[in-house]
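Checklist before submission:
- one chain only
- standard amino acids only
- sequence pasted in full

Submission:
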Amino acid sequence: MDMDYQEIMLQIIVNGGNARSYSMEAIQLAKVNKFEEAREVLGKANEELAKAHISQTKLIQNEASGNVVEVSLIMVHAQDHLMNAITVKDLAQEFIDMYERISKQ
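Returned file contents:
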């Protein structure tokens, strides 16, 4: 595994982790009725996920070009991190909407 490949995997892990953290922060903001702030922070989560997807796309394009890389633990970890971040971001959106609906009752 060359260094560039490792760097790409680490970027996915970092960006995924940042996205998850922003999503959790957004939920906490919504919980105290700070809905506008929650949506702004969730926007930051989306930005981090976009960065992670760019890195992931590089890997996919590399493999599609015939440069197959052996699956490694770091690759599995990066993909797991990214999928968890996406799930938490989606749930954060639902929590924000739910807390806002509850606050209006």
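Reviewer check: The chain has a mean pLDDT of 94.
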